[in-house]
TrEMBL record:
This is Arabinose 5-phosphate isomerase. The record marks K51, E103, E144, H189 as: Catalytically relevant. InterPro entries: CBS_dom, CBS_dom_sf, GutQ/KpsF_isomerases, KdsD/KpsF-type, SIS_dom, SIS_dom_sf, SIS_Kpsf. Zn(2+) binds at H74. Keywords: CBS domain, Isomerase, Metal-binding, Repeat, Zinc. Residues 26-176 form the SIS domain. It holds the Pfam family SIS. It comes from the Bacteria. Residues 205-263, 275-329 form the CBS domain. PANTHER family: ARABINOSE 5-PHOSPHATE ISOMERASE KDSD, PTHR42745. It comes from Granulicella sibirica. GO terms for molecular function: carbohydrate derivative binding; isomerase activity; metal ion binding. The keyword Zinc applies. Belongs to the SIS family. GutQ/KpsF subfamily.
Amino acid sequence: MTSALRTLDLEIAGLRLLRQSLETHLGESLKKAVTLTLSLRGRIHVTGIGKSGHIARKLAATLTSTGTPAQFLHPTEASHGDLGVLQPEDLLLALSWSGDTPELLPLIDYARTAAIPLIAITAHPRSVLALAATIILEVPQATEACPDNLAPTTSTTMQLALGDALALAILEARALPNGHYPAAFRALHPGGKLGARLTPASALMHTGDRLPFVRVGTPLSAAIVEMTSKGFGATGVLSPEGALVGIVTDGDLRRSFSKPVDQSELMSRPVEQIMTPRPWTINPDALAPDILSHMNATRITSAFVLVQQTPEATPQGIVHIHDLLRIGL
């Protein structure tokens, strides 16, 4: 337990040093790196060897998944022909704690010859890598968690954190309009739980002839037929102009039929006497987890989708709780 706590303490100390550096010279270099990447017409090739190589792979994946085209370039394979993947409009991002990793030398030379910008993440600003770099992201020196201060531990944690900071700084610098990022992110993550969490109502809703609607003045008997035929356990009630003024649910029917009233008279009543007015509605961009959370909290099973959240709007779709469960929430 003591060893484990010591490891975390040393890695936390390294992250604190990294944060302090970001508030000064490293932060200025990071801004330059973000500006450079935003001007690219090509992609970022992330490289490194050993433990830095593993961090480089993760950084390439993070960049790609947040909308910045990137790929990992293995330095050994690069020197055996894969250098051809580097194009003049690309950028090389190299990770090396020492900055003097021999396997990176062919990549450094090629980048210099082809005038390909090079961003270096290293702890040694006078190293071969740093001296050849267009921009140096200098990681502060820190003590490895290894008892002999040898095995890359604190250093790789710092590289990982700096890579995340760079990737997300690029993402935020692109300044997608409010509400656009979840849709863009989901386009890159359509599968699994993450894809389900980012699914908007517009991708789930039923439209057209599947929508259960009756007009104000419709007898309750006709509303029940509409509810039964559409299978959502509810029907919307529209004004003559097409605005959603209420909803009739299975619960509304149960409450109505539980009262001491003539059943035939009840079935002939206009639906607005039974409906729940001003039902909860959602917009097309509402995300699936938020919809499910509200449904669970309010014990409802369906919601109409309105493009414009105004009293005059006509619903464009309906989302049922089963649609949310079907995608794995």
